[in-house]
Design goal:
The protein is of the alpha+beta class. The protein has twelve helices and 21 strands. It has helices at residues 2-19, 163-166, 186-190, 193-196, 211-219, 275-279, 359-368, 430-447, 460-463, 466-471, 480-490, 506-518; strands at 26-32, 39-44, 63-68, 73-84, 91-95, 116-120, 127-133, 142-147, 157-159, 172-174, 180-183, 235-238, 242-247, 319-328, 331-341, 345-353, 383-389, 392-399, 420-426, 453-458, 494-497.
Length: 537
């Protein structure tokens, strides 16, 4: 009898092993596309298996695969400006340091500020959960991309903006020589319970996003910006998915600018670092990744109010940086910075419309007085500059978006906080004209109700070009009368036709956008019907 029970138990165990799914491991491929060395650090969560490495060096252009055991949870981040003390040999980093004294973090986490990639593998429902978090601040741009996974929420996430350059002054971490090397969270900078979501603010009902967290969210819409950010910043893939984690995913690796160090070459002492090394910590957006840069904030919006809930105002006489752009190998790039007195108001202007109608060319023409001859979809690096219109100085922020259907889910992330939209259609494309009322007005009314819209007809120079219509028999010109009729239909306060190539009316487009924000049209008051007094006959 005992033997029979033993046989049954063994057989049941055999069936369990036969039909149960094995726990799935994953591979993290960590790559460094920065033009400087990065030391990734890894920290396993409590109760999860340790990894074969907890920290290592990646020179520019290098990658390393890390095997991750099943059901692992933990964090991965990048450390920068690392060196060994010349007298003690102790290893440390200026950002993301884990305090272990060596390249291996050995169970220690990142010292804020640091951009974090967070994982829980093979969790609830057999799914992986992952996110990129700016709750502890920011030090590097990071892209986290699943490789071959499946699931409704299986998509790339990350923070691709150079927030060190954009960081509010109160949050900046400065390196020797004045370079900003990291951007602190408001919690770390000020320690206030309302920023740290602690004490009386220790729950989602009481801890609300601050102007500082909105800066992070606007710049990196897919990343967590504060402790109780919405759950859309968490992504899911089927268990067993591998992941690519890339530092500085939008940069060109400057192999010629910095010689990769051999694996056995000692780390340079701290004193040997130069301003050239620090200067390499600036990033440039690449053409290949430009489409993913939708929603990146290029300059912080206006100071938002007084008191603890808003941004701390700088002293009188503060300055704001005006960025001038030029077109280079990677599209629009920064050429120089000029410091001017702060403008009185920030205006966020977002361009929308069908793909290939000339939105990006219009922005490039306005900001650089040049016209790109090749079609490159959405490579405009968001622009911010002080502009004077009718005697009023404003800081104008311009955001480009992609009109293609592939970006229907990502594009609305750029609409947050918009003051005005430029809704563009091509004067030689009937389809783009019809889509204004069919597609774009419903989308804008849904995601940004009440925000004024300037209707813009682009490619004015081609509408009267007879040779163009001979070469493109399918093209249909849109008349000024048709454009004006459409303006009335959608209720836009202005309609302007322009040519980015000749720059005709380009300035007028943006002047109109600024004016409609500063001087919104008065709403017509409905006349009240005067009721006649009742009389009894």
């Amino acid at each position: 009898m005992v033997i029979s029970k033993l046989i049954v138990s063994i057989f049941a165990l055999f069936l369990l092993c036969l039909f149960s799914e094995p726990a799935l491991s994953a591979t993290f491929t960590v790559s460094n596309s920065c033009p400087f060395a990065v030391w990734p650090g890894l920290l396993s969560g409590a109760g999860t298996p340790p990894l074969s490495t907890t920290g290592f060096l990646l020179n520019p252009g290098e990658s390393r695969a890390v095997e991750v055991p099943p059901s692992w949870s933990g964090r991965l981040w990048g450390r920068t400006l690392c060196s060994a003390d010349p007298s003690t040999g102790r290893f440390s980093c200026d950002t993301g340091d884990c305090g272990s004294g060596t390249a291996e973090c050995s169970g220690r986490g990142a010292t804020p500020p640091a951009t974090l990639a967070e994982f829980t593998l093979n969790g609830s429902g057999g799914m992986d959960f992952f996110d990129v978090s700016l709750v502890d601040g920011y030090n590097l741009p990071v892209l986290l991309a699943p490789q071959g996974g499946s699931g409704v929420g299986c998509a790339s996430t990350g923070c691709l903006a150079d927030l060190n350059e954009l960081c509010p002054y109160d949050l900046r971490v400065f390196e020797d020589g004045g370079e900003t090397v990291a951007c602190r969270s408001a919690c770390e900078a000020f320690g206030s319970p309302q920023y740290c979501c602690s004490g009386a603010y220790g729950g989602p009902d009481t801890c609300k996003p601050s102007a500082y967290s909105e800066f992070f969210k606007n710049a990196c819409p897919r990343a967590y910006s504060y402790a109780y950010d919405d759950a859309t910043s968490t992504f899911t893939c089927s268990a067993g998915t591998s992941y690519q984690i890339t530092f500085c995913p939008t940069t060109a690796v400057a192999h010629s600018a910095q010689r990769p160090r051999e694996s056995n070459e000692p780390v340079r002492p701290r004193a040997a670092r130069t301003s050239t090394t620090r200067a390499r910590m600036r990033f440039q957006a690449s053409r290949e990744n430009a489409a993913f840069l939708l929603g990146i904030l290029d300059r912080l919006a206006e100071d938002r109010g007084e008191g603890d809930g808003g941004l701390r105002r700088r002293p009188e006489g503060g300055v704001k940086e005006e960025v001038v752009f030029s077109r280079g190998e990677f599209g629009i790039q920064r050429r120089k910075s000029v410091f001017k007195m702060s403008a009185s108001r920030f205006i966020k202007c977002v361009t929308v419309g069908d793909g290939a109608v000339g939105k990006t060319c219009m922005l490039i023409s306005y900001t650089s007085n040049t016209f790109p001859t090749d079609y490159v979809p959405t490579v405009f690096d968001n622009f911010s500059a002080n502009v004077v219109v009718d005697g009023s100085t404003v800081n104008l922020g311009l955001w480009d978006t992609a009109g293609q259907e592939d970006y229907n889910r990502l594009r609305p992330l750029s609409y947050r906080g918009a003051d005005v939209f430029l809704l563009a259609f091509s004067l030689i494309s009937k389809a783009s004209y019809e889509n204004v009322a069919k597609k774009w007005i419903p989308e804008l009314k849904h995601y940004a109700p009440g925000v004024p819209i300037i209707l813009v007809g682009t490619k004015l120079d081609l509408r009267d070009d007879q040779q163009f219509f001979i070469d493109h028999p399918g093209a249909v010109p849109i008349s000024t009368a048709q454009g004006e009729e459409l303006r009335k239909t959608i209720g836009a306060p202005a309609y302007i036709e322009c040519s980015s190539k000749t720059q005709q009316n380009v300035k007028a487009v943006f002047d109109a956008a600024i004016k409609v924000v500063l001087q919104p049209p008065k709403q017509k008051k409905k006349k009240k019907k005067v009721q006649k007094p009742c009389s009894i006959l």
